[in-house]
Design a protein that fits this description.
alpha/beta, five-stranded mixed β-sheet, Nucleotidyltransferase, domain 5, globular
Length: 208
């Protein structure tokens, strides 16, 4: 069964309005128990098609790793922004996700003329934008951003596992799997865990 591929229809429509550089933006790690939230922004060359770009969630880890290099090579500009767990606890995950996306866009050189975002409108962004529900499935630029963000975050979680293998970060990448919840119940939270997010089943079992 073939995987659904993202399309350049949305970006092409915006380019026909006169915008040369259209950035796609997405984030990963919003629903995790540990690790950062990571956002990516990417402007692809309109005449350089990268086959295989799709929502990162429908791709294998091997596919994502291969596409990461191809996307970077085909990008006019790209940037990844990382918000760590302690800041997520301080400002909450929704604001952290929006901050990461805004930072990723504003770090692009050159700045894009238009931004398309998966799901959310980014506040305080001084660039025209359009939120697109299911954008990582519909737009090549947003799907490309989802791949850059996912690969970056997965690499971070593998590094965190190497530093502290008790939690199995290399396997579940910080999501609340049974394995992860059992490890948290046994060992408590690490410095990389988000203390403002505790699954209800563990309220009375997690040592600080």
């Amino acid at each position: 069964m073939s995987r659904p591929r993202a399309s350049r229809t949305v970006e092409n429509e915006i380019r026909r309005l006169g915008y040369v550089h259209v950035a796609g933006v997405d984030e990963v790690g919003r629903g995790c128990l540990a690790g950062p939230v990571v956002a990516a922004a990417v402007v692809l060359q309109p005449d350089h098609y990268v086959p295989g770009i799709a929502d990162s969630k429908v791709l294998t880890a091997l596919d994502r790793e291969g596409l990461f290099g191809e996307i970077v090579g085909a990008a006019v500009a790209w940037h990844v922004s990382i918000i760590e767990a302690d800041e997520i606890d301080r400002i909450n995950i929704h604001r952290a996700s929006l901050k990461a996306m805004r930072e990723a866009v504003m770090a692009l050189v050159p700045l894009p003329g238009f931004v398309i975002v998966d799901g959310f409108r980014i506040p305080e962004l001084p660039i025209p934008q359009r939120p697109i529900i299911g954008g990582d499935r519909r737009s090549t630029a947003i799907a490309a951003a989802s791949i850059l963000a996912k690969v970056t975050r997965d690499r971070i979680m593998v590094d965190l596992h190497a530093a502290d293998p008790r939690y199995g970060f290399d396997r579940h990448k910080g999501y609340a799997t049974r394995m992860h919840l059992d490890a948290v119940a046994a060992f408590g939270y690490s410095p990389r865990h988000r203390r403002t997010f505790r699954p209800p089943s563990l309220f009375d079992t997690i040592p600080d």
